[in-house]
Amino acid sequence: MANDSEGKQLLISSEEALHLARLDEPRLHELLAQMHVSELGELLLSCRKDEERSILLEYIPDELLGEALLELPEGMQEDLLSDFAVGEVEEMVEHLDSDDAADILQAVDKDIADEVMERLEPADRREMEQLMSHDDETAGGLMQAELFKVRSDWNVEKVLQVLRRFGKEIENLNYVYVVDSEDLLVGVLSLHALLFSQPEVVVGSLADREFPRALAGQDQEDVVRIFEKFDVLALPVVDEAGVLVGRITADDVIDVIHEEATEDMFRLAALSDHDDLAEPVGITARRRGIWLALNLLTAIAASVVIAQFEATIAKVVALAVLMPIVASMGGIAGTQTLTVIVRGIALGRVTFANARRTLIKEVSVGLVSGLSFATLIAVVASLWFPDLGIKLGAVIAAAMMVNLFAAALAGAMIPLTLQRLNIDPALASGTILTTVTDVVGFFTFLGLATIFLV
Amino acid sequence: MANDSEGKQLLISSEEALHLARLDEPRLHELLAQMHVSELGELLLSCRKDEERSILLEYIPDELLGEALLELPEGMQEDLLSDFAVGEVEEMVEHLDSDDAADILQAVDKDIADEVMERLEPADRREMEQLMSHDDETAGGLMQAELFKVRSDWNVEKVLQVLRRFGKEIENLNYVYVVDSEDLLVGVLSLHALLFSQPEVVVGSLADREFPRALAGQDQEDVVRIFEKFDVLALPVVDEAGVLVGRITADDVIDVIHEEATEDMFRLAALSDHDDLAEPVGITARRRGIWLALNLLTAIAASVVIAQFEATIAKVVALAVLMPIVASMGGIAGTQTLTVIVRGIALGRVTFANARRTLIKEVSVGLVSGLSFATLIAVVASLWFPDLGIKLGAVIAAAMMVNLFAAALAGAMIPLTLQRLNIDPALASGTILTTVTDVVGFFTFLGLATIFLV
After folding, report:
1. What are the sequence ranges of the domains in chain A?
2. How distant is the Cα of B115 from the closest Cα of chain A, in angstroms?
3. Whole-prediction pTM
């Protein structure tokens, strides 16, 4: 029996489902119809192969199929959708909200998407084209077209009438969007405020004109910050002219936050954003291999530094024993700083305005740690190799000091510089950092040893 | 001029604000009253010292003060609140929602909290005691008491009447909670559904009885998963008997998701959860120092391994040049696996049910990378040190193979085991991992070299 994310059991495991597909189709139909889309997603994800997934897809009720597919990683969606005929895609799209429909149409082959688009009603087609025209990671890419908008010169009674007639299909309808005759967004009115108002009041006068809004082209990280800042449950999206084009609900933002955090975490760990548990071993090995190859190059660079001091090491082998300590401590301290700053940038806590102060703080922490651990390692090294005594202690202390300082400087400067250049501050910064701490660590330790010990 | 998180400028910087506090108090009052609480939070955060913050606090309007304080890191909140008198805390609490009020009362000194509690109305006090009785990181700790509940035997008309009379103060009122005569939660009714119903229908028959709910004792990570799974905007919280005790809104969950992601990211990077940009250098250095000290111990352990092979290194110094490559590649590959699994556990993608399959996949990836990079490094090493030739190539290839395999195995087993033991899988796992990859890397490389090269 399979477990779902809350530790509760799924109704059936993928093995059982495939078994039923051969022996008891009606029972499988019945069981799948009882499952939640997220459970269907988990069931599909837990299959071993795409062929198994394709078999199960046939038994998922039409109205859940699209949503279940959208629970899967993008690559898998595209592979599975490549088997679908135009009619099947069309039916799936009809059951979906506009934002999900746009995602499905972007995942199927271009020809099929075009054909499905042609079969849509002209108004729906325009809406879909509008939704598909935005970059995935912008407010426009997140928004859905389903919303309830009213003219600012209507009164409360008319709004309630229209709402009763047309609002029924809109999920999570919490706000009414008030527009003028040009469709420019005037303000937002909560359902709640509407209920407390007199029937004859004009809604233009009730609407909250200060209600936050997102621009269609704005990055999804900005959208998250607006939600966080204003604690709203849905946000209207306008184009550059101020025309209302869609809305984003808080539940969509939750997915974005997870996605952004995963991206940062993965990039810091030398992983591609798309590394997925469900993808085949070969693909994962190749994705990660690129980063490992990059690390191999930088590790070789560090070894080239060590190679310059071969003669020194041959005379004092204790240096080979101790040198990884200096490099490792630099790597860890630098990663601490790097992570705090990358996360600070992502959460909007590290900004252009406080970058200098942040840098000063991190470098100060580096100096304090440098002093403490220099003292500690000097004692350890002198006790461990008593014949080299205080001189070895002084050399390793100086190297540790320099490397922890370099680690803090690099750990802060790398993400701040990348951010300044409009590159994701998490991207490759871990690899650059450890190159710095390895090279500086080995060079100062072995260099000082060559001068003072040999 | 300071910038806020969206790159827009704050109305005033902390320097300007402190300047006005000396020269033009009315103007400062006026400016601060125009700012959003999150901007006030940023302004306070950007002050250099707590003394400066305390000065600015005096000019923040009473109704924003509590919320602005809650924007700050917990340690800072407590420090600032320690200057507040009972009356001031009481006034602040009156302006806050119950969940925020409970957070403030938990941050002030126990004596003051008790006194404020005593001054509350008995009903409010019971509500507050209920809220404060739950662990911070549970559904009960997140929930607020403000919600709109109705009896299941009321009809729509009565509900709308009561709603118009009493619902006005409740923010983000999207759902009406339907309870029976014992206050047991029967189901949930959206405001939206209420509007579309006939006045005489009994709400017990309209309520969605399958609507998800959280148990007060449930971990906040579970709460996030329920929100994600069901795409709701608010969730009712019940106690063990099923009695409705509060609700959690989606905007509170957004904060939790950020918090949980930060925690995992920090723990993976050998940071404490509380590492904060705004805290003094000494405190940060101490917090991080604990982790650096742990890393120093493990780095020394790796050096002890190297020390066993001093004689070998003295004969073949090339080994000292190449050995960090083997260790470094193991560290990176292991971190890749570790990060994917820690994140997979956090997002509910790696579960008890698929743990075995995940482990097999990761180890397979380790074998594939091991083979590829073993070949690559064998060629590099043979070309670099031609006099040691193919033998050195074979030794480093074997060591690389073994270490990438060990890295995958450890990267997967460490978080899965911690999870099994109910310990946060991110905690200290990076340090344990690099200990494994360093020790295995140095031992196999130098050990094989001792057997075959010397």
Report:
1. 14-136, 149-268, 281-452
2. 31
3. 0.82
